[in-house]
Input
Amino acid sequence: MQYDKELAEKYSSSDRLDHPQNRLPYAAWMKAVGNVEGLEVLDLACGSGYSSRLLAQQGAKVTGIDVSPEMIALARQRSQNICYHVMDCAKAFTMGRTYDMVTAAFLFNYAATYESLVQMMKNAALHLEKGKRLVALTVPPDPIVTRQPNASHSSHWLDEPYKDGSRFRLTIYDLEGTEVCGFDNVHWSQDTYERALREVGFNDIEWIRLHATDELKQFNNWQALEQHNCSIVIVAS
Ligand SMILES: C[S@@+](CC[C@H](N)C(=O)[O-])C[C@H]1O[C@@H](n2cnc3c(N)ncnc32)[C@H](O)[C@@H]1O
Output
């Protein structure tokens, strides 16, 4: 289990969350999510609840799922009006109902095998009726990030670069450039993501790249930070 108590606390610290480059993926993801007022949303890999709280703040009724009991414990401390469950999204599960939307902010980049990736997507599909959307954030399938000045993160390969299933280490920094935490991710190509999505019935797939917010443009190297981000939004229905 990667997200033990120590990583859960470091990952959830405001030092990380307050970085404008870190807010970029969530701004793009929430734009893709759109109006969720009154909608029931299943948030896969909700972690310590940052993504779930963004949805709830926009009026969604959120159910969050995460494999890490430590992350769920932090999520429960921070919000009473979201329902949280400890569950592994790489294994088959059912909530016994469907939702208006399924979200997954940084889940698919933890699929250790192609079969796990498909199972994660299948769990999303099973909780959606035809025409409803999965709105995901994941790491981009193209160039890995070298460290830039002011950057919130950098990464390096642990296995053969750009190979499906290869692991890379992401290191997170605060605004002063001090390391906050690090964790391992798994690389999947765009083709592989799309093959897995189609295998479980998602046909309409859109990839949305991130664009700098006014907040990020306060850095003189904002173009580099915009380009060297660690996230991409996928909308599938
Ligand atoms: C980078 S955090 C993202 C948390 C939250 N969505 C956010 O954006 O702040 C990734 C989360 O994915 C969870 N995770 C990884 N593999 C998972 C799995 N198989 N099933 C459920 N959660 C998983 C981890 O425990 C961790 O909390």
User: Anything to note?
Assistant: The chain has one domain: 5-140+189-236. The CA atoms of residues 164 and 188 lie 5 Å apart. The pocket of S-adenosylmethionine is lined by residues 3, 45-47, 50-51, 66-68, 71, 88-90, 105-107, 110 (CB under 6 Å).
